[in-house]
Design goal:
By secondary structure, this protein is α+β, with helices and mostly antiparallel strands. The chain contains 22 helices and 17 strands. It folds into three domains: 155 residues, Glutaredoxin; 337 residues, Glycosyltransferase (Alpha/alpha barrel); 65 residues, no CATH class. Strand 6 and strand 7 form a beta hairpin. The longest helix is centred in the middle third of the chain and has 18 residues.
Length: 599
Amino acid sequence: MANGRQLNHLKGQKSPYLKQHAGNPVDWYPWCREAFEKAGSEDRPLIISIGYSSCHWCHVMERESFEDEETARIMNENFVNIKVDREERPDLDSLYIKAVQAMTGHAGWPLTVFATAEGVPFYGGSYFPPEDSFGMPSFKKVLLAVSLAYRKNRKKVATVTADVEKILSKRSVIAPIELRSEVSDLAFDAARLYFDGAHGGFGRGTKFPHAMFLKFLLGYHRRTGREEAMSMVEKTLSSMAMGGIYDHLAGGFHRYSVSENWDLPHFEKMLYDNALLSELYTAAYEETGLPLYRQVAMETIGYMLREMRGEMGGFYSSQDADVDGREGACYIWTANEVKEILGKDSDRFMDFFSVTEDGNYEGRNTLRINRPIAEENDPVPDDMARMKARLFEARRRKKAPETDRKIITAWNGLAITALSRASRTFKRRDFADEAKRCARFLLSSLRGEDGRILRYFLDGRGDVLGLLEDYALLAGGLLSMYENTGEEEWLEEGRRLADRMIDLFYDDTKELFYDTGSDQEQLFIRERDLYDNDIPSGNSAAASVLLRLSRVTEERRYMELSEGILKSIEGIMEEPISYGNFLVVLESFLAVNNKEMPH
């Protein structure tokens, strides 16, 4: 029972996100045949609700709507309701979020999809409020309107589903490009238009780090000598390192900033962000020698090892934004709290970290370095570091946010890569040891007897067949270990994974990889996602692994496969920031093949 209620069909699920919803009055099903058969036999549409355990707005919508008895009654009487953890099934998330974007022009999490009994979407959105507000209809109104339309206007529903399938299928039609250095030039010139010269980063308002695109700019500067590319990287990395998006007490980065100056974060912490950013700061330190970048890289890895590593060596997926329903509760401070903890030292600390009586977030403060006081690119002084440690100890006595303990193969591949690079750059053998420990755990616990890689590990066992990104990013991590240590075992394991990846996912008619394997459930569209969003796309990660293997093994077939993938990035000039990892791989390809054009 949960709050006196019988558990729904999510009872017994492993995913922490699904477990959170097992006590809702909504009769949730996991993604399963039973739900689809029920929808078909009762002629009901599906609600497919997609989120993840550390998502703030997912929690909000649960409290407001999924825990509400009247909303649940409408859902249960008119729909068959399916809950999906996007971290467990990124293939479903990717397909349905593209469908909602195509239908409405925007999408996010929680993702709310209305679909036919066959799973083909005909309407959707993200967060819906419990009452009419901000020009949005209430969720109850949306539910009733969609249910009525499905019953009374089935012809219109069929037209929409056909249009959605047509749009998503068209995205699979690729016009190849020529792999020349002008592609990188055009991508750089396009991105310059979006760069925020005052605060770093791209765009205005809400900002994401875009670690992969910044890594491309590093490589582009290295190859071309374009100083503007390097200044864009330095401005962004320094602003982020001084802003509230960075956790100045524990290390590590929050998900994104809701303010353009990086001061007010959205507080969840994701393994993939911290793996990508720690590697980026390490790479930037290699180029610049700036102590601030070394400090941030080391502190971020320290955070990952201290708070995200499991007992057996794998890394957990995320930490929640909320504590007891309050967003950022353990990360924000009143001026009085700081004074009580630091005493006579508090004035200097408050000046340095911009702590005021009024605060910058609901009367409290996110810690962010006062730029007029602190020199950009300087590390935090020793006296401030000592005060930070005292405040951190006080924070550890607060209730901590929940940690989602899924160990996801792809994201752990990114962590292995970050540890390996930091080990080499900072001469830290212990980081190499941690990378090996993680790799051995993954290869022993997330590889079946038939050699098939699984998606994640939780509660003592692996589950869900691995996707393209799991194979490609784990193989990439193993190659990084080989490059760092020279130990042949990691090259052989990486090569074995890459060869199996080709067998399971490659489509030789398009010279691209599918996101799902030939042995997996086939959805209404079998996707080949090319966007580098939160993490490298499976195809860009595969292109990277194959290019690296071609160098080491001198096997031409790996180079040809990598080249085929790279030729498929026709949208790169229109949306360069969405192809960050592809551009990183393209820079490596140009260097290997001596196809640079003079600048």
